[in-house]
Design goal:
Length: 355
């Protein structure tokens, strides 16, 4: 009877309902986190074609499949789409690509450089030029499997090259066309809550980013089954791209190949800092940003020692300079500190104006 009275109390009922909603949400998110991709195996030699936007992308996206295909004595063709802008960088990165694929024991990979300038890449260019160039290559090589980058809504060049995949798939129904996950720009809390959690971790300055490429939707994914020895070989190939060692850390890319059949057009969101957030993910990010803004407010209202002013000047200046001079390096790392600084100086300015 006492239990019924407690549950009948409006205040208790309100908190109990909120608690149950939180528990239900947590269980749902946990079930999504525990969901594993489908398994993909390669058991016979194939004619494999890998479409790589940049020189390191071929190993990142389908290096594992090429390693297994090499062991099975299959043939692999790597087609590089874009050329680096600077000539000196071009010679270095092209040689790194040759060195990486040269690590295959049976030397089964052939390499093509289409040498397309990045500024030429557009939707119209893909339709009128790139599709035709790929057609001529596929007619000559007759591949069984073609791997494209997955359109993930983050890296513009990747997304442009990915737009050729539907055309190739429709024109060649007897060829298996796969799209490979390489980055993590599409943050869908409804499908992959752990991606949003890892993004929040990335917001903390100087904290390493330890997570594999997770694509868009686990229910539409296939993970290539690789042995430890094959995975070690893939990591060895990634290390051949010495000029990119800070861009392609093994902590993010040294994992089995992941193929995702998702279509980005089926999902909606808002783009911030090169990432596309679902609306629920954006709401959670907003709460976190406001929280750090109020931390800055609180520190300013406590009238702490003058030295704190200089600390906040540095905290605000560093991300600002990175955002202006090196936006590719800035990414998300200093965002929360910048908002805490903004909160601090908002209070500081108002106090100055009032006095």
């Amino acid at each position: 009877m006492q239990v019924i009275k407690v549950l009948a109390d409006k205040k208790t009922l309100k908190y109990f309902t909120l608690f149950m909603l939180l528990i239900g949400t947590a269980l749902y998110c946990f079930s999504l986190v525990m969901l594993k991709p489908n398994q993909l195996t390669l058991e016979s030699p194939k004619k494999l074609a890998i479409i790589a936007t940049h020189q390191d992308d071929g190993v990142i996206s389908a290096g594992g499949m090429a390693i297994i295909n090499d062991k099975l004595e299959g043939e692999t063709s790597v087609i590089y789409i874009l050329r680096p802008e600077a000539d000196i960088e071009r010679s270095i990165r092209y040689q790194e690509a040759r060195d990486a694929w040269g690590l295959l024991p049976n030397n089964s990979a052939s390499i093509r450089f289409l040498d397309i300038y990045p500024e030429d890449l557009s939707v119209e260019f893909v339709k009128t030029v790139l599709n035709k160039r790929l057609d001529s290559i596929f007619e000559l090589e007759s591949p069984d499997i073609i791997v494209f980058p997955l359109e993930e809504g983050g890296q513009r060049h990747h997304d442009m090259v990915a737009k050729a995949a539907p055309y190739v798939r429709e024109k060649n129904p007897n060829i298996t066309v796969l799209t490979a996950a390489e980055y993590n720009p599409l943050l869908l809390t409804e499908h992959m809550p752990e991606k949003l959690l890892m993004f929040f971790v990335r917001l903390l300055p100087f904290l390493p980013y330890y997570t594999p490429n997770s694509g868009i939707d686990k229910s539409k994914q296939f993970e290539l089954m690789m042995s430890d020895q094959q995975l070690t070989k893939k990591k060895e190939m990634l290390l051949a791209f010495k000029s990119q060692k800070d861009v392609i850390p093994l902590s993010q890319f040294g994992y089995p190949d992941l193929f995702d059949n998702s279509n980005m057009a089926d999902y909606s969101g808002i783009k911030i800092l090169g990432k596309i957030f679902s609306f629920s993910g954006l709401a959670l990010l907003s709460i976190l940003v406001i929280y750090f803004f109020y931390i800055g407010l609180y520190i300013a209202l406590k009238n702490v020692k003058p030295a704190i002013n200089y600390i906040f000047i540095v905290i605000f200046a560093v991300p600002f300079l990175f955002a202006i001079t090196s936006p590719a390096i800035f990414k998300e790392d200093f965002l929360l500190l910048a908002f805490s600084s903004l909160g601090f100086y908002t209070t500081f300015i108002f106090q100055t104006l009032r006095s």
